[in-house]
């Protein structure tokens, strides 16, 4: 006899040998399974996996219709499936062959539009803010204090005045210094900034002149800069420059623009066993809708596609894009190997506590944020989007580093899925999407959208419409939780030696 009439487990794909527990399951209880009543041999925490068929020792464990690892021992139906009996299939650098698959039809583009700020260079912002950036960490606190003073003095005249300090810009050499400069230059040119003040020190490696030369795509009346060693009062100088930028930016007005002008970053952090079931595929449907309308979804976190990279490679627009995907994946694997680190040393402790067992599983869930669109381009760290359509961006999995890279690439909004929760926010409006209702109810001051109702029967179509409505509202100026909480950070990818 079934002990609970409500669904207790969820199978993603008909080929799967495991299902996800929708609540805490007790050893000995019987629940409805895809092949009839299933009696639990083990207790299975919510979000974790339970075997629904026999899995032989050494056999592949299937979830999402793909292998997520191999069984370390025989696993019987009703047993808990996790790190104690499953190991990754990932090893080192692999051989890839271009085998394109016919793309699935995308949803109808629709007629949605949003109220954005069209810039002189043709890009469209979702905010009209003044950004204060610094060449070097030595003036990071100065930049933050300038933002505090400016927000008090010029309140209400623009969407906000924000400083984005960082600890780098000096004691860096070669490519490491170049990457810092390129990333900051990309932020200088971001369309969400109606004006940018760049604050330098004067003696740093990341010289102000070189940084500004790397940012040609910003109108002169939108940019101000100075070096603090060359002025008597950096606050007086900075506030005078910010006042000029505010006077220019407050003339800007939102206007109706099509969804084709939207660039959305796709990010997950603090994932759990439901992330690949609810929030990530939901974001994938929104990404498809944006791409179908001519917009640009951007996927990053290269180490968190290891094990699922072939899905993206098969959707490359052509062999040239396939080659770029292969190269960025291989380069990242070699980056791990060069530092004597295993490429599969992921997921995090929080991921595992939430039910994710291997990097293979985490990656297969994560790539669902990219939907089914064709991959049209691959960007290296610090580069900006140059085509409409799904784009892959080089950056690590770290939330702050990858979200900063997404913003620098041109994302004017970030869709951030999470099963565990995080308060962090980034320069672009960051929409937090909970994979489960428990998180949304527990942290309402963090979460903007609850994907949990999909586990209770909400259709994918209805959930997609709900999220698209929120995307349009945020793009048009609605405040996210992280914006309301003042959570606005950047982090740069430090890759080289420190002098």
Automatic annotation (TrEMBL):
<dbReference type="GO" id="GO:0016787">
    <property type="term" value="F:hydrolase activity"/>
</dbReference>
<dbReference type="GO" id="GO:0016829">
    <property type="term" value="F:lyase activity"/>
</dbReference>
<comment type="similarity">
    <text>Belongs to the UxaA family.</text>
</comment>
<dbReference type="GO" id="GO:0019698">
    <property type="term" value="P:D-galacturonate catabolic process"/>
</dbReference>
<protein>
    <submittedName>
        <fullName>Altronate hydrolase</fullName>
    </submittedName>
</protein>
<dbReference type="Pfam" id="PF08666">
    <property type="entry name" value="SAF"/>
</dbReference>
<dbReference type="Pfam" id="PF20629">
    <property type="entry name" value="GD_AH_C"/>
</dbReference>
<feature type="domain" description="SAF">
    <location>
        <begin position="16"/>
        <end position="87"/>
    </location>
</feature>
<dbReference type="InterPro" id="IPR052172">
    <property type="entry name" value="UxaA_altronate/galactarate_dh"/>
</dbReference>
<dbReference type="Pfam" id="PF04295">
    <property type="entry name" value="GD_AH_second"/>
</dbReference>
<dbReference type="InterPro" id="IPR007392">
    <property type="entry name" value="GD_AH_second"/>
</dbReference>
<dbReference type="InterPro" id="IPR048332">
    <property type="entry name" value="GD_AH_C"/>
</dbReference>
<dbReference type="InterPro" id="IPR013974">
    <property type="entry name" value="SAF"/>
</dbReference>
<keyword id="KW-0378">Hydrolase</keyword>
<dbReference type="InterPro" id="IPR044144">
    <property type="entry name" value="SAF_UxaA/GarD"/>
</dbReference>
<keyword id="KW-0456">Lyase</keyword>
């Amino acid at each position: 006899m079934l002990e609970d009439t409500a669904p207790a487990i969820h199978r993603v794909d008909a080929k799967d040998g495991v299902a996800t527990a929708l609540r805490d399951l007790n050893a000995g209880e019987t629940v409805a399974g895809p092949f009839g009543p299933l009696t639990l041999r083990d207790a299975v925490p919510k979000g974790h996996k339970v075997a629904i068929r026999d899995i032989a020792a050494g056999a592949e464990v299937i979830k999402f219709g793909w292998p997520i690892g191999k069984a370390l021992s025989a696993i019987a139906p009703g047993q808990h499936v996790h790190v104690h009996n499953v190991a990754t299939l990932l090893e080192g650098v692999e051989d890839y062959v271009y085998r394109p698959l016919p793309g699935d039809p995308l949803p109808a583009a629709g007629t949605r539009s949003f109220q954005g700020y069209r810039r002189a260079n043709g890009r469209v912002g979702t905010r009209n803010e003044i950004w204060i950036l610094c060449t070097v960490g030595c003036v990071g606190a100065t930049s933050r204090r300038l933002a505090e003073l400016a927000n008090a003095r010029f309140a209400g005249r623009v969407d906000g005045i924000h400083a984005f300090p960082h600890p780098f810009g000096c004691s860096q050499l070669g490519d490491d210094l170049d990457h810092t400069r390129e990333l900051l230059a990309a932020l200088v040119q971001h369309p969400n900034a109606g004006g940018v003040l760049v604050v330098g020190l004067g003696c740093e490696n990341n010289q102000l002149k070189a940084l500004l030369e790397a940012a040609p795509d910003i109108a002169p009346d939108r940019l101000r800069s100075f070096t603090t060693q060359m002025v008597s009062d950096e606050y007086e100088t900075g506030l005078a420059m910010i006042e000029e930028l505010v006077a220019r930016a407050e003339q800007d007005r939102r206007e109706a623009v099509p969804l084709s002008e939207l660039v959305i970053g796709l990010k997950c952090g603090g994932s759990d066993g439901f992330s690949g079931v609810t929030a990530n595929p939901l974001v994938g449907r929104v990404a498809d809708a944006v791409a179908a309308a001519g917009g640009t979804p951007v996927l990053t976190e290269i180490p968190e596609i290891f094990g699922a990279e072939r899905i993206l490679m098969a959707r490359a627009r052509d062999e040239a894009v396939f080659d770029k995907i292969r190269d960025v994946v291989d380069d990242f694997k070699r980056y791990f190997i060069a530092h004597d680190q295993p490429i599969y040393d992921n997921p995090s402790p929080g991921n595992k506590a939430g039910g994710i067992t291997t990097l293979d599983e985490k990656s297969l869930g994560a790539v669902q944020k990219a939907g089914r669109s064709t991959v049209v381009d691959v960007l290296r760290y610090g580069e900006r989007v140059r085509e409409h359509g799904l784009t892959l961006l080089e950056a690590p999995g770290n939330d702050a580093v990858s979200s900063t890279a997404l913003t620098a690439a041109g994302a004017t909004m970030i869709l951030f899925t999470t099963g565990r929760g995080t308060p962090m926010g980034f320069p672009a409006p960051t929409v937090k999407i909970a994979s489960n209702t428990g998180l949304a109810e527990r942290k309402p001051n963090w979460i903007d959208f609850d994907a949990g109702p999909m586990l209770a029967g909400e259709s994918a179509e209805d959930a997609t419409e709900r999220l698209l409505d929120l995307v349009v509202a945020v793009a048009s100026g609605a405040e996210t939780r992280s914006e309301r909480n003042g959570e606005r950070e950047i982090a740069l990818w430090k890759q080289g030696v420190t002098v």
